[in-house]
Structure prediction request, 764 residues.
Amino acid sequence: MVEAEEIWVEKYRPEKLSDIVGQDEVVSRLQSFVDKKSLPHLLFAGPAGTGKTSAALCIARELFGVGWRQNLLELNASVAPETPILVRTRGEVKRTNFGELAKVFFNSENQKYAYPEGIEILSLDDGYNVRFMPVSVISRHRVNQIAKVKYEGGVVRTSLDHSVVVIDDGGNLASKSVANLAWGDLLLTFVTELPGEEKVLDFGIHRPAQFVDLRSGRIENPKVKTILNDRELDDNLAWLLGMYLAEGCAVLDKDGTSGVTIFTLGSQETNEIQRLQDTLEGAMGLKTQLLPAPSGFDRTRMSALQLRTCNTQLAKFFMHNFYDGAAVRDATTKRVPSFVSSSPVRRRLEFLKGYMGDATGEWNNYVRYSSRSQECLIDIAWLGRISGLNTSCYQGEARLVWRLPSYSYLKTELLPARPFIKLFEKFDIPLHRYFMRHSLYYKRSKRISKHALKEFIRKNGLEHKSEFAHLLKLINSPVSTVLVRTVEISSYDGYVYDVSVPGAEVFWGGTTPILLHNSDERGIDTIRTKVKDYARTRPIGDVPYKLILLDESDALTRDAQHALRRTMEMYTHTARFILDCNYSSRIIEPIQSRCTVFRFKRLAEQDIAAALKRIARAEKLTLVDEAVKAIIYVSEGDMRRAINVLQSAAALKKRIDEKAIYEISAAAKPEEVRGMLELALSGKFDDARAKLLDLLVGQGLAGEDVLQQVHREIFNLNLPEPVKVKLIDKVGEADFRLTEGANERIQLEAVLAHFALIGDRLKE
Prediction:
């Protein structure tokens, strides 16, 4: 097996305080504390990548020697980036994952926390109701091991410290570490009918130009036959969209001015073909054409039929909504559109019926969907769960199963038997063999169906006993349990993620939903339990205290900070705290007053350059001077980012030049951005716009990254200060609009237009 290359940030992390560069005064003061082994509580504040965490780890090494890991507590636990979740933003429900969220809310490689506004995640409230709840923080950190938990109907990958939610012997929800999971443990899942709202589909965004301008004048566009207006998502249209997911494809010509949508069905599917034609022709006013097509298994047999409709607007609608921004739009990248998940249950079910084109089985009985897009199958599994259907998801297949007379129960109707058996025994209620047929027998029983429990409780007149109140609430809830099949631990090198959900601290995640505990370590429970338990124990060795490192401590909730203040007071004889933050103003004053504060500054260019050249020599790289300057430019005083950029470039070739740095760092050359701004100021707006399009399309840069560079380059322009103030104000407004989801091309062109207007005024 080929071993993964070590991350250079860790490989070249300082091991002694004297190895830390660019923070001479801080290092000198810290070294005096370490030499005396008399350490106060410490608060490290400053930008990312300036040595705060490295300084804390160096202190631990120098105080405790080889056993430093045993005397240092670092707090973190999260799930893998591909973990499926369901979120709601501005009323739109979307099945996504943490990796996709990170692209939206994390602006740099080294950022550990994001504070999103207006985003909710599917959670569980105190009344066992499955509903969306606000997210306050998204966090991430790196781990070197991860657990793959396979359970009935799904899988999830998490760090070993992460917790899942289980039902204890008293029938209450409790958390359990993934590291302690084993075969046969029970995880929580759900089936419910999540409310939705009627949706109007936006065809107008793809509306073609009705007129074209010729030298002879304006005429009607001859290519436009039918214009689609915005349309309410009804049953037939929902079914058609599901059919597109199964059997459809959309094609545009090279210019994107002519498009066709094609549905390919078997010649025996006459009812489906007729319904498609009725919807396209009758409801939407489009013309269709039915043609013979070759079989997918034998290309010489014309046993299939293709239903075609030539409408560019419709083709663009499908390409925009069914591939979630993928560069390649084919069967491997298809997804369920978010407006389907946001619609009422009835529309979702019609969509799933339309998707039967990719399925075997019978609706209301047993259905097996197949797809080359695994993300699409996960979408289907979640869509079914929020639409009242029992679903499971496997590699290449998603399944729906209905309760039938031949089934004793469905897996999503089972609860742990133990809490109920304990309570029945307490009331001396005999458990008959007939009752236990829904689970393993008697004391070895694992689960029992909700239906059997309801019947048993009713027959024994237990509905009104207060002792059964919380169990009855559980029975009547959408919550059920699934068995853990396997837990596989493997090496891992990357970020894992978590969310904070105030008021719940749980969220649903996995290829089919299981309940995950918010294991992010910034809540009051962590301070009251994990930190306190660690702080009260004696250290190993001759140093009279342990170290507790609270990384990114400015993300601690205020309640957690107040609990931390008390813990710092109580355990000063056995523990010292090192708080690492970007903004000390977010730390409450009582904690700041108990700490010695050290402020870390951004690293100077010469310090970063020296470190890069030292690493290049060790790795036998040729690092040209222009490349060093480019790394310094894109890293902005962040040593961690500078080293990451260098390692990424080194993966491509041993000789690293300026071009390689800008290609892998999602940044443009500063002179390109500056030149674009100067073109706009000189009145050459079209040239500036062309340069912008080259940056966005040709070089593939994100609009936010370009805008950040525009902000930096304004200060390098030969302009009066009042003019720079106006330009910065405009950039700030565009930045706000981009973070709110505005179109990046329109916003950046508006910024260039403002530059052009300013340029005209300067000429006057």
